[in-house]
């Protein structure tokens, strides 16, 4: 646990030190669970956004994008169920006066048991060496099986009680498991209450005429209310999708996990409209398609797993998360939900407008079913950033800190470095920058010895360093150094563009999915 916490602390301080993420309004001591993206962070975020948009919209003939407003007619949120049911169960500790999400306390308890299982697996893997069969070990080791059983029983009971809104049982579960306040160890808990996560505000000049509106808690509803507009004006035929990237706001109670759980965050969502009855097929297909998208970044298959939901949201008939191994354990990165015709039917009912599709093949109209893929852009950022930050021991015994962001997403693709600040080398380096910057974001750096500059670029996540030296003056070649392997090659200046292009082109990353 302590190792994980240390690693997470390193991630947070590195993100600040290298201009990725700052706390919001830091000079006023910050605002809890709100963050600003800094000069490098904004580029990484933009690249992730583009990587998603290309894969989801540009590469799919039957998916188009929109950008709906954050403020929507308040009835939207009545229809969607958010006014009545977008709640988290919260519990207060009477001694520490700290507030927690009751379900998160229980999940964290289970995560601790899971950590024990992982330890057993690690130990056994060491003991058995090559012959180790993980699946078999998980299925047969009595201690592991008992612990897994325990987790399943707890989560299943929690799921059922939340479904039934049986908050007394949630409290009973916390007491039975003897869960203590993680900060103080106190077990003196209040009852569990529901808390609505939407931020409300008012539109209108005077108090009497003001209308209560909400900052959208998800981008999906902006897609549903525009379903027919897009279908008609885009002449879309089912199955088709509408995608959107935009801000969402939730008044989160547990807000101590950096950009994993924010009060203002960004979602990348796609609603796929389908014929009723085909949802199972599309749900499975989108689960696989989305997993492949993640895997295309090369961050390791073992870092991802599916978690199928026991407790389904009020709108879903199947739901799964793609979980990622964050520094604090496996947690939800993306949700894939089979939302049935719930949303469109609700909007039909509340608006009195028909939201149906005429199926020319079937010669009938129906309310389409929807399969949704929904990923937090900020969580994706954290997944990439945390996974990329590595400390390596080199052959000479020194260590280096390196941020191995997949080259396709790296904020700065190349740094151009004159070996010395004289003999015309800076001029050549500047010329290279001027040429490359048409295609890539590049930087120029002449301060300090070249070895220190390499280290600086390693830690900032720049995948290529291009060094101009005295040989360049005679043969027009430079050294290109690869961040991940530290390999150095001599190449012609005129080839730089195509070498970098080959390494960073989204096409090359996405097409092998
Ligand atoms: P959680 O269980 O972690 O609260 P959720 O199930 O409520 O998440 P969804 O409503 O399915 O999340 O939202 C889709 C995606 O939006 C999530 O997979 C996550 O990546 C992202 N997301 C949700 N809430 C937040 C938040 N507060 N901060 C950052 N990202 C978020």
Description:
There is one protein chain. Helix 5 packs antiparallel against helix 7 and helix 7 runs antiparallel to helix 8. Among the domains are: 255 residues, BirA Bifunctional Protein, domain 2, CATH 3.30.930.10; 99 residues, Rossmann fold (3-Layer(aba) Sandwich), CATH 3.40.50. It has a seven-stranded mixed β-sheet with strand order 3-9-10-16-13-12-11. A five-stranded mixed β-sheet has the order 20-19-21-22-23, sandwiched between helices. It contains 18 helices and 23 strands. The chain has 513 residues and is of the alpha+beta class. Bound molecules: adenosine-5'-triphosphate. The site of adenosine-5'-triphosphate has 16 residues, from strand 10, strand 13, strand 16 and helix 13.
Cα-to-Cα separation, first versus last residue: 34 Å
Helix coverage percent of residues? 25-40%
What is the radius of gyration computed over CA atoms, rounded to a whole number of angstroms?
26 Å
Strand content: 15-25%
CATH class of the domain at 1-73 and 214-395: Alpha Beta
Task: Tag the structure with descriptive keywords.
Rossmann fold; seven-stranded mixed beta sheet; five-stranded mixed beta sheet; 23 strands
């Amino acid at each position: 646990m302590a190792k994980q916490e240390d690693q997470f602390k390193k991630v947070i301080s590195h993100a600040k030190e290298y201009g990725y993420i700052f706390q919001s309004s830091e000079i006023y001591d910050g605002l809890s669970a709100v963050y600003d993206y800094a000069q490098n962070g904004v580029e990484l975020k933009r690249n992730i956004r583009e990587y998603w948009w290309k894969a989801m919209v540009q590469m799919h003939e039957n998916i188009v994008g929109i950008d709906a407003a954050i403020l929507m007619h308040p009835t939207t949120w009545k229809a969607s169920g958010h006014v009545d049911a977008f709640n988290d169960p919260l519990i207060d500790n009477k001694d520490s006066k700290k507030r927690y999400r009751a379900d998160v306390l229980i999940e964290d308890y289970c995560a601790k048991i899971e950590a024990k299982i992982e330890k057993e697996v690690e130990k056994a893997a060491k003991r058995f060496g090559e012959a180790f069969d993980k699946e078999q070990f998980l299925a047969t080791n009595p201690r592991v099986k008992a612990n897994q059983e325990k987790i399943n029983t707890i989560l299943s009971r929690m799921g059922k009680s939340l479904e039934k809104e049986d908050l007394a049982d949630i409290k009973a579960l916390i007491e039975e498991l003897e869960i203590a306040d993680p900060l103080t160890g106190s077990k003196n808990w209040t009852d569990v209450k529901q808390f609505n996560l939407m931020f409300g505000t008012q539109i209108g000049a005077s108090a009497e005429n003001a209308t209560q509106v909400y900052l959208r808690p998800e981008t999906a509803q902006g897609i549903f209310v525009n379903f027919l507009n897009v279908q008609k004006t885009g002449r879309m035929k089912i199955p088709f999708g509408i995608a959107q990237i935009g801000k969402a706001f939730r008044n989160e109670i547990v807000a101590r996990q950096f950009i994993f759980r924010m009060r203002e965050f960004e979602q990348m969502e796609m609603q796929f409209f389908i014929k009723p009855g085909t949802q199972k097929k599309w749900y499975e297909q989108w689960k696989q398609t989305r997993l492949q998208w993640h895997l295309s970044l090369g961050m390791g298959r073992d870092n991802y797993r599916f978690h199928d939901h026991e407790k389904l949201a009020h709108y879903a008939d199947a739901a799964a998360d793609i979980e990622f191994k964050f520094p604090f354990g496996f947690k939800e990165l993306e949700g894939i939900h089979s939302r049935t015709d719930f949303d469109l039917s609700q909007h039909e009912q509340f608006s009195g407008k028909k939201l149906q599709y005429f199926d020319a093949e079937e010669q009938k109209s129906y309310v389409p079913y929807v399969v949704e893929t929904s990923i937090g852009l900020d969580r994706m950022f954290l997944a990439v950033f945390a996974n990329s930050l590595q400390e390596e021991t080199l052959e000479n015994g020194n260590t280096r800190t390196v941020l191995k962001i997949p080259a396709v997403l790296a904020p700065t693709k190349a740094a151009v470095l004159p070996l010395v600040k004289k003999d015309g080398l800076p001029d050549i380096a500047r010329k290279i920058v001027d040429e490359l910057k048409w295609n890539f974001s590049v930087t120029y750096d002449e301060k300090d010895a070249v070895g220190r500059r390499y280290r600086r670029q390693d830690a900032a996540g720049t995948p290529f360093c291009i060094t101009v030296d005295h040989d360049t003056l005679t043969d027009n070649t430079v050294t290109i150094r690869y961040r991940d392997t530290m390999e150095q090659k001599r190449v012609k200046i005129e080839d730089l563009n195509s070498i970098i292009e080959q390494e960073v082109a989204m096409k090359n990353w996405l097409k092998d999915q």
